[in-house]
Write a structure and sequence with these properties.
alpha/beta, 320 residues, Metallo-beta-lactamase, Chain A, homodimer, 10 helices, globular
Chain lengths: 320, 320
């Protein structure tokens, strides 16, 4: 399972009633943050997910509205008592950005390990998940992320019986351990069912909808995608500034066969993103307009990728 | 006149209902900001003072909660259309801090001129005001500020008449220009009345109440001062961390003969600073507990430093 929490949905500047675009996931007890604009730690504190277990931060790019909150967050995580290393992922140049911003956070009680990723890289993130990245198109290096959590193969009870393995040895196998039976070592794979689909989501922001990104997010359960402009009228601006309109994001979700779409990163000129929801839903019906405090879950299920309970969304109090 | 606007009142971390400590002044059409923690631009936007005319930023010190909002603000001021140079004042090391943070604001449409100040420095700020600084005591270099706006000497009508200057030449003299009368040059000083008191305020935060700072703020119309802790119970913490309690700040205001005291920079553990107001007012009655959106004015008046209309305070809507 992966828990999802939208922290902010804004673009370019933090507004009195809209935090900058970023979101947080929880996998087991690990927290991983995606982008960190100025103020990101403020709604985060409001939603009580804690700061200490922030194991990793994934950055899409280095524009200030996606990274300016880092030094303040570094302090807040330190104050929460973290001593384990923190991993930072981002496009080439991330180490210099982190070094520059750490001029006001030079001493921290935890190590910081920066990983610069480029198109096609696949890395293991904390929490047993993997990230694949692809370059987008935004004028500066930008990465889209595809996050996957694999699902362990089920225990094949019938196979265990047919091999004559005593019931008291099943739990070790179920926990992935090998056992010895009749003098023979039996590994967990011997009693595992067929491979099972895990859960996955894509995070794509500050980019045009490229073929490269389409391939990256093909078949994800959930696509979290920017929609800086609400409608086709702003198509020219979207192309000029390396962003997407709601219809473009919805088309990407549809063509990539995503299970659901969360739209975020709303331009400051769009006062009420909900008013433009129809522009996305006529292309891709399973679209949610994000707001700070929106939560969801990606849960394992057997092959029903379109299952409506895959993404359970709801708001929390204090939403702004 | 000097207009005052409190943007935030928090210490250490920006909280969901308390912005970090900073405030803004307006002198004629110039804006000058004092400190800039993460999120400072957000309430600022709410109060509609504009960003373009931000001519100067005065920093007390370089802890993240007082400077992390700079790079985002630099972009916002750029987006507001500024092209004139911006001046940044702060203790030694300010240039390195600004350079580090500008890793995410490398190209701006205005020049940035950094002035590093040390104990006793006096500088002219934009808007025709002067700043005098003094070192505080906080573990790292910290500056207290004393801001003064001088008042022009009045036009001495009787003197102008006795010198035989025709009425049609008075306005030039009143505007500070020299005239020629009867073949003789007459400067504005020749028809100026006695020197008049201007207005002044002190800004003192993140420091113990030192003798040095007492001398700096002696006789100011308004002292804006930190009160990180509400009462004497936290006196030991205040001493250990280089801060002040409400009673200590009130004592500084009283002993320095300030006209009024605004308390700000409340520790995150102090949920309701108003509850501790009595701890300050029993020492210095004219104490205001600041909140984001608090405004005030320092207006010229002839010699009545204690006049209650010197500081007119009120709240604006949207206060948080």
């Amino acid at each position: 399972m992966i828990d999802l929490l939208v922290l902010g949905t804004g673009a370019m500047v933090p507004l009195p009633h809209r935090w900058l675009s970023s979101f947080l996931i929880r996998v087991d007890s690990s927290l991983i943050l995606f982008d960190c604009g100025e103020g990101t730690q403020i709604p985060w504190r409001q939603y009580h997910w804690g700061f200490k277990r922030l194991d990793a931060i994934c950055l899409t790019h280095h524009h200030a509205d996606h990274v300016a909150g880092l030094p303040g967050l570094f302090h807040t995580v330190a104050n929460a008592g973290r001593t384990e290393p923190m991993h930072i992922y981002g496009p080439p140049g991330t180490a210099d950005i982190v070094t520059g911003l750490r001029v006001i956070a030079p001493r921290l009680p935890y190590d910081m390990i920066v990983h610069e990723l480029d198109d096609g890289a696949v890395v293991d993130l904390p929490g047993g998940i993997t990230a694949r990245v692809a370059r987008g198109e935004h004028g500066v290096p930008v990465l889209g992320y595809r996050i996957e959590r694999p699902r362990r193969r089920a225990f094949d009870r019938d196979r265990a019986i047919s091999l004559g393995i005593p019931v008291e040895q099943w739990s070790a196998l179920q926990r992935g351990k090998a056992i010895t039976h009749d003098g023979q070592e039996i590994g967990p794979d011997a009693v595992a069912g067929p491979p099972r689909k895990g859960v996955s989501f894509g995070f794509v922001t500050d980019t045009r909808p490229t073929a490269n990104l389409h391939d990256l997010v093909a078949g994800v359960d959930l696509l979290i995608c920017e929609g800086t402009y609400g409608g086709d009228d702003d198509g020219e601006k979207a192309r000029a500034w390396g962003h997407m309109t709601f219809p473009e994001a919805a088309t990407l979700a549809r063509d990539a066969d995503a299970g659901a779409l969360w739209l975020t990163h709303f331009g400051a000129g769009m006062a009420k993103p909900d008013d433009f929801a129809g522009n996305a839903r006529r292309i891709f019906p399973h679209t949610t307009i994000c707001h700070s405090g929106l939560t969801g879950q990606l849960t394992f299920s057997d092959g029903y990728r379109e299952s409506p309970d895959r993404v359970e969304s709801g708001s929390v109090s204090g939403d702004r």
